[in-house]
Amino acid sequence: MTFSATALFSAHGQLVLPDAITIEKPSNAVAAGAAAFSGAWLGAWGSELPTALIVEQIHSNDMAMVMYAWGDLPMDAIKADWSRQAGSVSNGKLRLISEYSQIDFTLEPDGAMQGRYQGASDRKDAWPAFVVLHRVPFTNVLSLRETVRKTFPIWQEVRIPVHSQVGPTKGKTLWLQTTVFHQSIPGKHPVVIVNHGSTGPGIVPASFVFRGGNDVEFFRSLGYVVVAPMRKGRGQSEGPNVEEDSSIPVTNTLESAIEDLHAVVDYVSRQSDMDPARIVLAGASRGGLLSVAYAGRYPTNIVGVINFSGGWFGEGHPSQDFNFEAFRNAGRDARIPMLWLYADHDSVYSLKFDEREFSAFRDAGGRGEFVEFRDIPGEGHYLSQWVDRWQDKVQEYLAQRLNAGR
Q1: Beta-carbon contacts of residue 370 (< 8 Å; ≥ 6 apart)
Q2: Containing domain of residue 47, as a range?
Q3: Which of 132, 150, 168 lies at the terminal end of a domain, its last residue?
Q4: Taking a C-beta distance cutoff of 8 angstroms, is the pair 81, 65 a contact?
Q5: Could you say which of 301, 333, 340, 388 would form a disulfide bridge with 296 (CB–CB 3.0 to 4.6 Å)?
Q6: Would you tell me the crossing angle of helices 351-363 and 321-333 to the nearest 10 degrees?
Q7: Are 282 and 399 found together in one domain?
Q8: What CA–CA distances, in Å, run from 59 to 64, 95, 106, 367?
Q9: What three-state secondary structure class fits 35?
Q10: Are residues 124 and 215 in the same domain?
Q11: Domain containing 108 — which CATH number?
Q12: pLDDT surpassing 90 at residue 336
C-alpha cells in the first residue's frame, strides 16, 4: 500500500484597517534614507501574526506618522486591530515606542524591511519578535486597501506518513502533523526543516503545536521553504510520545525521532517547490541533536546542519552521557561541516558541557564551527529566537553550504 502526504488546511491572516488611509509623498526636505520608509508594507511576525505597516507621513524633522495593523493570533489571545502612532526616523531606522514595547524597522539592501519587537524594560528576559516586511505595490488608496485587506496564506498544514520500524510503534504507519511555509515566487527553493525540542519537565504540553518563530521568519526571508514537523505523540501527530517514555530504551527514542525526520526529508524531496539538493536541517535542544544525528545516519541527504543549543538530556541528568555518544556517532559518519550555536546562562547546558559535546563530535571526525554567545538576556536555551545575534553567522554558513552543494 502506498501512502502520500495529505494537506489539511492553510492558515490565513485577516487584517483590519481604518476607513481612511492617506500616504503623503515626502517633501524634498526629507532625506532620501528617511523617505524610503514611506509607503505600505506587509508581513507576519514570527511567520504567524500578520501585520501591515503603512507609513503615511514623514516630516523633515525625522518624525513619522504610521498606521500599524495586526491580525488574529488565538493561541496568544491576540485579536485583529489597528492603531495610529508617531515614530522617528534616524540612522537608517524607523522606531515606534509605546508604554509596552519598542519596535525598530530597518531597510535591507534587497528592498525589504526588517522589524524587531522588544517588550518593555521589565521584560528584558523575553526574546524579541522578528519580521520581514515587503512593500505593497499600489496605484491608489483603494487598490492599497484591497491588497492589504484580503486574506493571505501564512502556512499550510500537511500530514506526512511514517512507516515505523522502531520500538512500540514498529510495523505501524502513523501520520505526522507538519507545518509548511511556502515561498510566493514559483520554482524550486532551498528548504530548512526546523526540528522542535522536548516537552521538558512538564514545561511544554505534548499537545502544543510547534510552528517555529523568529527563526522561521528569518529563513523565509532568505528565500527558503520552511518545514516544521511534529514527531510522534506531539501536537496532533499520531502515536505515543516515545521520547518521554522512560520505559523505552534511550537509543530507541532517538531512533524514533530519526525515522520521523527521514519521512519528512522524503516528503520534501518529492515536492514541486522544494529542491531536494538543497535541504538544510535546523533545530533547538533535542531538535539540534536530532539534526546532527540525522546527518550522521544519512550523510548524503542534506547540505547543512544548524544546531541551536542541542542535546538529548540536560546536564546533570542520569543519562547525560547519551549526548556524547550520539554526537560521537554522528561525527564518525557525517560528511558536511555544521554550525553549532550555544549561549551562556542556559539552564539546561553550561558552555563547558557544550564544548565537551562538540569535542566528542570533532574528535570522532565531525567537522564544523562551534560559536558561543555570551550576551543573551535571560534564558540562554532560547538562543534560536535571538535572530539579531546569530543571523550574520547563519547567513554566511548557508551561503557557503548552498554554493558547495553535497
Answers
A1: 340, 342, 354, 355, 358
A2: 13-150
A3: 150
A4: no
A5: 333
A6: 40
A7: yes
A8: 6, 14, 18, 53
A9: helix
A10: no
A11: 2.40.128.120
A12: yes
Query: 101, 125, 150: which is the final residue of a domain?
Result: 150
Q: State yes or no: pLDDT of 1 exceeds 90.
A: no
Q: Which residue has the higher pLDDT, 154 or 401?
A: 401
How many Å is the Cα radius of gyration of the chain? Answer: 22
β-pairing verdict for 49-58 and 63-70: antiparallel
Question: What does the pLDDT look like over 59-113, one tens digit per residue?
Answer: 988 899 999 988 887 767 788 899 999 999 998 999 998 877 889 999 988 888 9
C-alpha 64/C-alpha 33 separation (Å) is 13
pLDDT grade for 132, boundaries at 50, 70 and 90:
confident
Residues 6+ apart with CB under 8 A from 134: 41, 42, 43, 111, 112, 113
Confidence of residue 224 (pLDDT cuts 50, 70, 90): very high
Same-domain check for residues 317 and 377? yes
How far is residue 127's CA from residue 387's CA, in Å, rounded to a whole number?
A: 9
308 and 347 share a domain?
Answer: yes
The one-letter amino acid code at 335 reads: R
Give the model's pLDDT for residue 360.
98
Contact partners, residue 227, CB within 8 Å, separation at least 6: 178, 179, 180, 181, 191, 192, 193, 194, 264, 267, 268
Q: What's the pLDDT tens digit per position in 12-61?
A: 567 888 888 889 999 999 999 999 999 999 988 887 888 899 999 999 88
Instruction: Identify whether 34 is part of a domain.
Output: yes
% of residues, the chain, pLDDT over 70: 92
Based on the structure, what is the number of domains in the chain?
2
Amino acid at 371: V
378 band by pLDDT with thresholds 50, 70 and 90: confident
